[in-house]
Amino acid sequence: MIAFFLYILFEFTDTIFSSFLMYIHFPSKSHTFFSASSYGYLITLSNLLGFTLLLLGLYRFGFLSYSFYLATLSVLSLLIGFSHSMASFVLIFLFFIFHTAFFFWYEVLAVKFEKFEALIGLSYSAGFFALGILLFFEKLSLPLLSVLYSVSLFSMLLLRKIELPQKRLRVFQLKTSKFITEVLTVWLMGEYAEVLASMAYYVLKDTAPLSDAQIHKLFAVALLSAFLSALISPFLLERLNIKRFGRLTLLLMISIPFLLGFPSLFYLLSTLVGSSIAFYWVFFRTYLYYTYPKEEYIGRFMFFYFSSHIGGVFLYSLLFQLFQSHQLSLLIFSTLLFPVLIVNIFS
Fold first, then answer.
1. What is the pLDDT of residue 63?
2. Could you give all domains of the chain from N- to C-terminal order, each with its CATH number?
3. Exposed, middle or buried: residue 235 (CB in 10 Å: 0-12, 13-18, 19+)?
4. Engineering a disulfide at 263: which of 115, 208, 270, 328 sits with its beta carbon 3.0 to 4.6 angstroms away?
C-alpha cells in the first residue's frame, strides 16, 4: 500500500510539473527564438533522442535503468527550478529527453498496480485539475514545484525492484489485418492529440495578440475540461461502448480547426481541446488493455506511444512551414482523421 501511495503521489506531481514544462513554460521561453515549425522540429528531436535512449537502456546499456532516470530527472528538475538564464532552456530540453525514456517505466508501474486503476486515473486527472487551478489564479511557483517533484522522484527509488514484462512484442504480432485498423484508430488519433498538446502555445500566441496571462487562463480551461472529461469517461464508455466513445472523440477532434479562426470562441476551443485529449487517452488505454493479454499491453502501448510522438508534430511543422497558417495546417492535418472515422463507423 505504501508503494501504491508513492506511485500516485508521483503521478500527481509529475502531471503538474512535466505538463507545465512541456506545454507552457518551454514554448513560452522558445517563442522569442524559434518559429512554430522550428519548435516542432526541436520537440521531434527530443522525442527521438528519448526513445533512442530507452532502447539503448533496454537492449544495450544496463546502467540506463529505472534508478538512473529517477536520479537524473530529480537533479534536472531542481536545476530547472532555480535557473533563470539561457541554461534553463538546455536543461528543459534534456529533461524532455530523459522523461520520454522514463515514460516506459511509468507504464510498467501502472500495470503493476492495475487493481487500483480507478485511483490511478483519478490521481492523473487530479494533476490536471491542480495545474489548471494554479494557472487560472497565477499561483504557480516553479522553484516550489521543482522541489516537490524532485522529492517525489527520489521516493520512487523505493520501487526500484521492477520486473520487465515477460512477454515482449514481436514484429509478426503486428502483421495482422486487425493491426491496420489499430494504426488508423489509435496511431493517427495519437498523432493529432500530440499536436494539440505540444503546439497549443504557439497556435494561440501566433493566432491572436494574447498575453501569457491570457494563455494561462486558456490552458487552465483546457486542463479543467480534461479533468471533468476524465471523470465522466467511465460513464460514457458504459453508455456508448468503446466504438461510439472513439467516434465521439474523433468528432470533437475534427471540429477544433474550425474554431481557431474565431478568437472570441477560444474558451470553447480550449474546452474541446481538453476534452478530446482526455477522451483520447481513455480510449487508447481502455482499447489496448481490454483487447489484448496483459503481457502484451506494455509492448503495444509503447509502440503506439513512440509512433505518435515522432510523426505528428514533425508533419504539422512541415505543414506550417509550407502554409504559414496554424488554422490551415491543423485543418489539413485533421483530414487524416476522416479515414479513421470511416473505419470506426463501418468496421
1. 81
2. 2-346 (1.20.1250.20)
3. exposed
4. 208
